[in-house]
Design goal:
The chain has helices spanning 6-27, 33-52, 60-74, 80-87, 90-101, 104-135, 138-141, 146-166, 182-186, 193-212, 215-231, 237-253, 260-276, 278-297, 301-323. By secondary structure, the chain is an all-alpha fold.
């Protein structure tokens, strides 16, 4: 066994307890409320411990954000079953800690378990779970609020970042894509299922692209931009997918990182909504300012915020139009 820090040892002990309790809650219907309280309490303690601990392999601001978001989700009004489904991701954390304190064949076994559970639970499972909650209407049933949505997205995006980082693909640090999710945080029940999925994918694709900034990440980002624009022009998912795929192919086959199809569709969509809604004209000026700062100084904050506001306003207007 390898020596690990006291904080990591305490985390490992709690993770073992937490995952055993999680299994018992599923199999034998053991009361889970104590698990949520204990997990929230330990997460708060670990956050304070983390702030004074100088030894941290992951940036502290990311871990603190992750911990705070976790506590918010654990204490949220969502049902017990959904909370347990979210907590499944902690199996991967437990295997990560076990990998750090083992050697030889056991270390290799723990590495395999860690990688398999990390990708399947933190990247795939959390993605599918959020979409499932939207489609089944659980957001409306439990009156999920803005802070809870934001917390879920923070946990998910950090999981994606750490996954990409473990592959050695992260070249830049950027978090501003989270602003693109404003319609999800503010208007989750107003969004149609297609709009919700489009914005969720747009948020993820943009976040990954601004971490990597290569041809493949741009192709993914272009697909999501086109899919979202065409969704807000009233197109069906099949049309959005085909044109989005064409934009990705354009990025992958051109010699320069310029996507004329994406720029044309995005510009047309913005102009279309400017002609219908006067406030979008004001937002368009903010978008233009943000785009200039993005292109000139590589600062993406205003660009992403303006697009998040734009999507939020148009979402609300389209919903009002549909209900009249």
């Amino acid at each position: 066994m390898k020596t690990i820090s006291t904080r990591e040892l305490c985390s490992l002990i709690f993770l073992i307890y937490g995952n055993i309790h999680l299994i018992l809650s599923y199999v034998f219907d053991v009361c889970a409320s104590y698990l949520f309280i204990a997990a929230s309490g330990y997460t708060v303690i670990d956050t304070l411990w983390l702030l004074v601990d100088e030894d941290s392999k992951t940036p502290k601001h990311e871990l603190v954000s992750h911990h705070i978001s976790t506590v918010i989700l654990l204490m949220s009004s969502i049902d017990t079953d959904t909370k347990l489904k979210v907590m499944i991701i902690e199996f991967s954390t437990m295997f990560l800690m076990l990998r750090r304190c083992t050697t030889g064949i056991m270390k290799r076994v723990m590495h395999i378990l860690f990688m398999s559970t990390w990708v399947t639970t933190r990247v795939i499972w959390l993605y599918c779970l959020l979409i499932s909650l939207k489609i089944t209407g659980k957001f409306e049933i439990y009156n999920t609020n803005t802070l809870e949505f934001l917390s879920y997205i923070i946990v998910y995006l950090l999981s994606v970042k750490w996954t990409v980082e473990s592959l050695g693909l992260v070249k830049y640090r950027s978090y501003t894509s989270i602003w693109l999710g404003l319609p999800i945080y503010l208007l989750p029940n107003t969004l149609s299922n297609q709009q919700f999925i489009a914005i969720f994918n747009l948020l993820i694709g943009s976040f990954i692209h601004h971490l990597m900034r290569n041809r493949i990440s741009l192709a993914i980002d272009s697909f999501n931009i086109n899919f979202t624009c065409l969704t807000y022009l009233g197109n069906n998912p099949y049309t959005c997918t085909v044109i989005g795929a064409l934009s990705s192919i354009e990025v992958l086959t051109r010699n320069e990182y310029i996507n004329f199809l994406t720029r044309m569709i995005y510009s047309y969509t913005l102009l279309h909504h400017c002609c219908i809604y006067d406030p979008v004209v004001v937002i368009a000026f903010l978008i233009s300012s943000g785009y200039y700062k993005y292109q000139r100084y590589n600062k993406t904050g205003i660009w992403h915020l303006a697009n998040g506001l734009y999507l939020s306003y148009v979402t609300e207007q389209l919903a009002l139009l549909k209900n009249t």
